[in-house]
C-alpha cells in the first residue's frame, strides 16, 4: 500500500489529490498499520510487525508489541496525519482536528490469520462511545463476514447496537450491493453505505446504480498487487461496455 510518511511520498501524492479535486471530488487518506501482514523487506519503517509470532499466516514473522513501542506508533500516525494535509485517534485528532478525522473499525475481523476478539460486540460498543466523546467526523464499521446456514447466507452479528451507540454519522460496509445498501439506509441501519470491491471494478459505480447497468466483476487475484494498472485502472467504464 502507498505510504505518506516521507516528504518524497507527499510530493508523489500531490498530483493524485489535485486530479481528484479537479473533478470536484473529496480526497480521504486512510492511515493504518498493516500489522503482521506488512512487508518486512520493503522499508525499515515497516519493521513494525507488532503481533504475536505463533499465528497461522504465510508472511514475515512479526515481532511482539511491547508497551514501550506504543509511543513510536502513535508518533508515526501523527506524522502521517500531518503529511496528509500539506491508530491512535487522539494523536491524529490533535494534529488535524477531530472534525477532519474519521475511524474505520472491523471488530469482527477474522482474516489474514487474525484471532478474533472474544467479545467483539462489547469492544465495538466501547469504541463507539469513546469515539463519540472525541467528536470525530464519522465512524465506518465493516460487517462480519456471512456464513452459510442451510441453503442461505446470513450475517451472524449485527452492527445496529454500535450504530445506536455512536452519536454521529455511521457508515456500514462489507458485501453490500445496491439493493442491500438502499435497504440499510431505509431501515436506519446506517447513515451511509460504503462500497469497496464493487467500486474498484466499477469506477463509475454511481452511474451504474443510477441506471441499473450491469457491473464489471472484480478480480480478487489483483487485489493489493504492486502493478499500477492491472486491477486498478484497467476495468472498462460504462460507456465502453454499454
UniProtKB/TrEMBL annotation:
Coiled coil: none annotated. The keyword NADP applies. Keywords: Flavoprotein, FMN, NADP. It holds the Pfam family Oxidored_FMN. Residues 87-212 form the NADH:flavin oxidoreductase/NADH oxidase N-terminal domain. Signal peptide: none annotated. Its cofactor is FMN. Belongs to the NADH:flavin oxidoreductase/NADH oxidase family. This is 12-oxophytodienoate reductase 1. The lineage of its organism: Eukaryota, Viridiplantae, Streptophyta, Embryophyta, Tracheophyta.
